[in-house]
Write a structure and sequence with these properties.
This protein is of the alpha+beta class. Helix 5 packs across helix 7 and helix 7 packs across helix 8. The longest helix is centred in the last third of the chain and has 25 residues. It is about 45% helix and about 15% strand. The protein is built from eight helices and seven strands. A four-stranded antiparallel β-sheet has the order 3-2-5-6, with no helix packed on it. A three-stranded mixed β-sheet has the order 4-1-7, with no helix packed on it.
Length: about 240
């Protein structure tokens, strides 16, 4: 009798112990997908796919797993005994949002339309060009440019340095705004970034990866960097007094 109870206990432990579920995530063209979030709905454990689309997560038989991404339709699967012993091939289809047809107007058409209905032209934020540095113009170009008394004064007074610092700050803030608008706050909530810390996190990652605060941001590389630096950033803010 004792042997039977022990046997049933071991069988129960075997079937209820969490095991590794692993596999590869790809798109409709069999290209690996990085940064896809995998969630065990029972345990709330989360992980992300690697650059090769590979993932590993702990699960029991009967657990529901979900594959979630902003750019792809959600996929869900209830784990069976057979799926614990082989690599899973998860194929995600892109998320397509239907929108009404739109007409793209040229700048000239926009100006004509503004004049026709009496709207003022779009506001612009022109910048005064800062005098070039020696690195930008070389010594010969730098000395030649200093013939302009206005540029000479800006360099001597420090105005040129302050202008460049201000423009760099403005470019950083504009880039952060673009990233926030592109991903939305819900994306950072999924990464467990605290509310009102999204901007700080974006600047932290772009600084770590030395990603340029320019008009053309590589969002694919940036998203991979987000996933890689989430643990380090969360640890950093937890240790702050």
């Amino acid at each position: 009798m004792k042997f039977f109870v022990l046997f049933m206990t071991l069988v129960s432990i075997f079937f209820h112990a969490q095991q590794k579920v692993f596999g590869t995530i790809s798109d409709e063209n069999n290209q690996p997908l990085a940064g896809i979030q995998v969630i065990n709905m029972r345990t709330s454990e989360k992980t992300f796919s690697t650059t090769n689309g590979n993932f590993t997560i702990l699960a029991n038989i009967g657990d529901e797993l979900r594959w979630v991404s902003k750019a792809y339709n959600r996929y869900q699967l209830v784990i069976t005994p057979e799926q614990l012993n082989k690599s899973l091939n998860i194929h995600l289809s892109p998320f397509v949002q239907e929108i009404a047809p739109v007409t793209i107007l040229s700048d000239k058409q926009v100006s004509e339309l503004q004049e026709k209905i009496g709207l003022p032209p779009s506001a612009e934020n022109p910048r005064e060009k800062a005098p070039p540095t020696v690195k930008e113009a070389g010594w010969a170009g730098y000395i030649y440019d200093m013939r302009n008394l206005n540029n000479l004064y800006k360099n001597i007074s420090g105005d040129a340095r302050r202008m460049r610092s201000l423009y760099l700050y403005e470019d950083q803030q504009n880039s952060i705004n673009k990233v926030l608008q592109y991903y939305g706050t819900s994306y950072f909530q999924e990464l467990e970034i605290p509310t009102n810390k999204e901007r700080d996190f974006i600047q932290f990652v772009m600084g770590k990866e030395k990603i340029s605060f320019s008009k053309n941001i590589n969002y694919t590389l940036l998203e991979m960097a987000f996933i890689r630096f989430v643990p380090e950033y969360l640890k950093l803010i937890q240790n702050k007094p």
